[in-house]
TrEMBL record:
Coiled coil: none annotated. GO terms for molecular function: DNA-binding transcription factor activity; sequence-specific DNA binding. The keyword Transcription regulation applies. Gene3D superfamilies: 3.40.190.290, Winged helix-like DNA-binding domain superfamily/Winged helix DNA-binding domain. InterPro entries: LysR-type_TF_proteobact-type (IPR058163), LysR_HTH_N (IPR000847), LysR_subst-bd (IPR005119), WH-like_DNA-bd_sf (IPR036388), WH_DNA-bd_sf (IPR036390). PANTHER family: HTH-TYPE TRANSCRIPTIONAL REGULATOR, TRANSCRIPTIONAL REGULATOR-RELATED. This is LysR family transcriptional regulator. Belongs to the LysR transcriptional regulatory family. Transmembrane segments: none annotated. It comes from Motilimonas pumila.
């Protein structure tokens, strides 16, 4: 049984007749009919019901089509991946990067650039990957939280906890809350999601605690900077707050209490539109970035 004959079987199903496939492949109709007959003989069952006007699948043929279609798609993907690995990658890749992820991401990117020295990588800090993808012509972008636009394809990168954080300066001036109840009366930094919804509560220790925001932003970069500057208490993804926690510009509050977790994704517009170089970089980041992320996430 040859892969070519299985592919021919799929085309006959998709185009609905031997004549249409013969015209498509520029082959005699008799050649198509003979090869399908030989496939049926080898399988020991009929795949098609043939009449003078119509060609339709038998129940066994329908089941076989579903299974073979999956196998052929997997085979084509495997062949494509192997072919791309043997090519010399070139060109520019534009990626959207989340503020706070650059320390870990730079390690992964450096390894890729060492392996592919002719590739140019341009990174842009982004907070709304859905809008920035088209505005800045990004090949793919990091996104944290829910996927709000089904027209994008998301590759899961990891899951990270959110942390209640504040600067030492803020805590010295306003006091350090020792329980979530004491958030009332504190200055709160709240995030507005890309779908325009606003944080109204923080999940801490298995409960939702209402918040009264003093500063609202749809940009995590601004929120992190506001927290570092002592403007209030933030509820930030650990992967983004990590560099500021490491050098003691931020401190974690309520350590040990369970908090929300957020998914981090790599988004891109379509499988057809992504270049081989961009795809290779994306796969490299997915494969290697978790090795360089902070231990507590």
């Amino acid at each position: 049984m040859r892969v070519e004959d299985l592919t021919l079987f799929l085309k006959v199903v998709e185009f609905g007749s031997f004549s249409a496939v013969a015209q498509l492949l520029d082959l005699p109709r008799a050649n198509i009919s003979r090869r399908i007959n030989e496939l049926e003989k080898e399988l020991g069952t009929r795949l098609f019901i043939r009449t003078t006007r119509q060609l339709s699948l038998t129940s066994q043929g329908a089941q076989y089509y579903s299974q073979v279609n999956t196998i052929i798609q997997d085979l084509e993907l495997a062949n494509s991946a192997l072919t791309e690995q043997t090519k010399s990658l070139t060109g520019k890749v534009k990626i959207g990067v989340l503020l706070g992820s650059e320390e870990s991401l730079n390690i992964a990117i450096s390894a890729f650039m060492d392996k592919h020295p002719t590739v140019c990588i341009e990174s842009r800090f982004t907070n709304n990957s859905f809008a920035d993808m088209f505005q800045y012509g990004l090949d793919f972008a990091m996104h944290i939280g829910k996927l709000h636009d089904s027209s994008f394809i998301g590759r899961h990168l990891g899951t990270f906890s959110r942390m209640v954080v504040a600067s030492p300066d803020y805590l010295a001036r306003h006091g350090r809350p020792t329980s979530p109840e004491q958030l009332l009366g504190q200055r709160i930094l709240a995030f507005r999601w890309p779908d325009a919804s606003l944080e109204s509560h923080w999940s801490i220790g298995g409960r939702d605690w209402p918040i009264q925001p003093n500063l609202i932003s749809n940009h995590y970069g601004q929120m992190i900077q506001a927290a570092v500057n002592g403007n209030g208490i933030g509820y930030l993804p650990y992967v983004m707050a990590y560099p500021f926690l490491k050098d003691n510009r931020l401190e974690i509050l309520f350590n040990g209490l369970e908090t929300d977790v957020e998914d981090v994704w790599l988004l891109y517009p379509s499988r057809e539109g992504i270049t081989a170089t961009a795809k290779a970089l994306m796969e490299h980041i997915i494969a290697t970035l978790p090795d360089f992320l902070p231990e507590k996430y």
